[in-house]
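Lab notebook: predicted structure, single chain.

Context: the supervisor wants predicted structures on file for every construct in the current expression panel, including those that have not yet been purified. This is the next one on the list. No modifications to the sequence; it matches the entry in the shared construct table.
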Amino acid sequence: MNEKLLNNLACPVTNAKLAWDKENNRLISREAQVAYPIENGIPVLLPEKGVHIDFDASSIK
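Prediction complete. Output recorded below exactly as produced.
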């Protein structure tokens, strides 16, 4: 994930910053506890595509 691109993306639900989960190739909204997929290198930031996750916020950098 391009860092410059990541810095310009926000959660479509909360407008919060996103974190890249490199291991699972997805973007995480800590605030909403939602993971958004990255398909063919393109973040899919549609609320209906987000998957609710429970996680320890400190585990995602």
